[in-house]
Amino acid sequence: MSEKSSLKFFGKNSFPRRLLRFLGTMELAITLLITLAIASVIGTVLQQNQPYTDYLIKFGPFWFEVFESVGLYDVYSAPWFLVILTLLVISTAICVTRHTPSMLKDMRNLRTQVQRKSLASMKHNEQWASADAPATLAANFQQQLKDEGFRTRLTDRNGALLVSAMRGGINRLGYLLTHIAIVVICVGGLMDGNLPLKLAEWRGQIQIETRDLPLSQIPQESRLAVGKQAFRGSVSIPEGRSSEVVFLPMRDGYLVQALPFRIELEEFRIEHYDNGQPKSFESDLVIHDPELDEPLRQTIAVNHPLVHKGYAIYQASFADGGSILQVEAWPFDHRAGDPVMLDTKVFDNRDMRWGDRQYRLEMTNFRLFNINPDPTDEEPRRVRNYGPSIGFILRSHTGEATEYENYMFPIEREGRRFYLSGVRGSPSENFSYLHLPADANDGVEGFMEYLARLRDRELVGEIAQMMTRDALADLPEPDANLEESLQQTLMTLVGMFVRGGFDEVREFVENSLPEIERQTLAPAYLGMLREMLARVYFAGVEGHELDNTDNQNIFFLQDAVDAIGSLPRYHSPVFLMLHDYEHIQASGLQIARAPGQFIVYFGSVMLMAGLFILFYLPQRRLWVWLDAEGTGSRVLLAGMTNRNPRDFDGFFDEIQQLLKPDKREL
Amino acid sequence: MSETIRQNQTDSQSWLAVGAWWTLLLLATVFILVAYGDHLDVYEVTILFITGFSMAWLGKVWPPFRWHALAVAILSLFALQRYGGDLSMAQQDGWLNYILASQSAFMWMSAFYIAATFTYFGGLIARSDYTQKLGSSFAWIATTMGMTGLMVRWRESHMLGSDIGYIPVSNLYEVFILFCVVTAMIYLFYERRYKTRGLGGFVMLIITAAVMFLLWYAFDRNAHEIEPLVPALQSYWMKIHVPTNFIGYGAFAIAAMIGVAYLLVSSRAEKNPQSHFVKSMPSLAAMDDLMHKSIALGFAFFTVATILGAFWAAEAWGGYWSWDPKETWALIVWLNYAAWLHMRFTKGWHGRPMAWWAIVGLFITLFAFLGVNMFLSGLHSYGGL
Ligand code: HEM
């Protein structure tokens, strides 16, 4: 290449220079600022980093792919977003580089080269005559301006004297600090971002894992070794267990990052306010680090992380860690088997058989506290503790899943005690509750026995016969046919009720009775059913340990009937009662390494300092030009500022009053 | 600021007053340290000193602030004395029930801000200087009641239970009151310094809007009830992050309302430059300048607030920046005003376009402040409506 062309290449109007100049323009900077703002809006409107299937459902296959290719699911690390950010940093850097020399000069330069003419044409200027000689005045003015915080210099300008003064030269430093700070912050932020991971993925060195695998089966391509790089991930550790890795969420999957130490969780605690709201979440951690003489113990809490070797460990969330449970399963139908005690754990799944049906029982949750508003209370904001509960899913052989939430202890409503069990078909629904009345021993035996008696054809038959006799006692002469059919009807009613609740009974009445009789007969049928239910109940009372006060029995009967009536909608062949538990919690930790953090903080402090200097320490310049005039002098005072011109108006007046000796006469 | 300082220097009378103010502050600080020193940790002592120095400085450059602070102190102490540690006094004691219990104080605040709006505008229409001055007085009374209410509420939260007490800048209800008070204070500062009483009604208008929201929020949603703090909010950073933020929001709101006034005056001036309205409002140039000052003030404090927020996030969430919607919107607001300032300062844009832009800026700010909580989900959950 000849010398000529390389000259041209670096010449004043060469392409690189023009590009450089373009990159440093204000217009570009502002355009980038606004573009960045708009791009950020997209990231907030479209929820970021959700499971990809959610997006697929939301946008359909076509738009899903379009949006994915533009990186809309992770805007802030999309290439185009990073390009804008980088351009902004470059633009600011060029701007600063270009302005720095002149700004630094301007901070010191008192501008002693000004011409009288240009002073006289400044917006702020004032002239007056003085009887004192220029040299005397100059000395006085210099002193007075010094007292006002100005730096001054006296120069001889071809016989005339010029006092140049400046205050707030530091204002230019404000510009430098703010703009350098932007560059510093972005560089620090970039160090802490996941750009290196993106690059490694792009080069095929790592692969994001999207399957839900046990740690030991996660392939090597999805693992990251201990290193100096920044990351931010999370891990859930059950009490008594430990972890040497964290999981980094990446788009629709994750990566496994190794730690140079092992974190053990001894205990996780939730403390509560008197009203039951959570007051603090705390984890007792033990750090096992081969480089430490002995393990490091520390309790972390929300807002109080632990920092070890530049790794910051935060309390982020909590969950059940596989609590050990003892659950008693009571079949609603006694013929399906005796109650059994199950030893199980949260996250355990097992196959169960009740009667001729196969079910899969999945224990999903255990909660020690259920602090909820009491719906029957006057004040809906008053909350109370309903005690421990278990959550589980029953999956029938057809795969249909129903979710349950059973409370361990009976709750009290208007003096009566119930076992609560919530049921719902899908997580989007609210639970509806089965209220199972507790017997005098706070057990469910009373209820189950009653239910068994209702299923006992022989017993029901006897009672129906007795009731029929009582009902027909007034007839002049016995009618065997009528007796027979009434007894049958009573037994059928009970049978239908046990099978399908009041709904089935009502349906039967609607379908089997002629329309004209329905109005009068339907209530009669229901009345007879209720009478039967009561008789069956009281027939068993004596033999059983129920409190014999009548009210109690009547309430129990009423509640039991209600509960049986709603069993068909409960969809479960058993009632699970929590007997005992060992609560094991898991603490969700967020672990981060941010080597750029210090740089970002340093830049932030620069930015704050710079802004206040920029806005509130304006640069103010004053000049006094002194021409000899006879024995006295002709004074020209002029001034300018680089910001807040309105404040300068008042300031200039005051300076003028200060320097002009007898201002009132002039 | 330097002019005011110089005026004071020439005025020995005011030096005496400043001296008295500083002595008072010093005594109060020493008293707090002696009486409660054992309960205060490093952060709280730091905050105490920062507060002391800010008040010393504010009282020096802005004499009315001294009276305001004094009134707030006396009223709050009086209220605390009436309470005597028993929350139920709020209903039993007449002073508390009708005036000083936080909820009553807020009602007075609301009433006086609304009254101030009408009075300022009334004075503008009726060409009555006196009425406009009355507007200023009302605004001062409202601000004093609001501030007193916040102080009393602080104490009330402690009376609810020894572990419940917190500084009342923690939920949407409380920060709305803070917004009213801070916005009014910034405006009153400008009003005295730049003689802009004509703008009073405009600024009070946005405060009245906030008051309306507050009233709805309290009566419809029972938001005024004090609830204990969730763990995420138990942080010292929060105590300085939130008030700093609201200086920013307040200043942006003022800038936008000046923008509204600017547009009205300039369109009126085109038709009739001699109209009464045009003449009784500050000059267009003055409003333009004040708008710039207001945005600069807001920008500086908003920057500090965002940075403090990042420091807090680093401690609470495990990262100083998570692109959480609230954070991102803070960035959007910030970028927007950065662009505004560049256009104004380096390109010399001014007048109507900048007034429009300031108004648009307020909507962006409003979205960051309210909209994000209402429409977007994220880590900042405290403000859910
Ligand atoms: C995120 C990026 C930036 C931010 C936050 C920022 C912020 C600021 C602020 C707050 C001011 C003061 C404005 C005022 O006084 O009203 C300012 C002034 C200025 N900015 Fe920027 N700026 C950025 C990027 C840039 C870029 C890229 C350039 C160059 C192209 C630039 C050039 C200037 C200049 C020349 C001034 C005037 C300084 C003076 O004379 O005092 N800025 N900037």
UniProtKB/TrEMBL annotation, chain B:
Keywords: Cytochrome c-type biogenesis, Membrane, Transmembrane, Transmembrane helix. It is found in: Membrane. InterPro entries: Cyt_c_assembly, Cyt_c_biogenesis_CcsA, Cyt_c_biogenesis_CcsA/CcmC. One of its GO terms (molecular function) is heme binding. It is a multi-pass membrane protein. GO terms for biological process: cytochrome complex assembly. Residues 169-380 form the Cytochrome c assembly protein domain. One of its GO terms (cellular component) is plasma membrane. Its main location: membrane. The chain crosses the membrane at residues 15-36, 42-58, 65-83, 95-122, 134-152, 172-190, 202-219, 246-265, 295-314, 355-376. This is Cytochrome c-type biogenesis protein CcsA/ResC. It comes from Methylophaga lonarensis MPL. The lineage of its organism: Bacteria, Pseudomonadati, Pseudomonadota, Gammaproteobacteria, Thiotrichales.
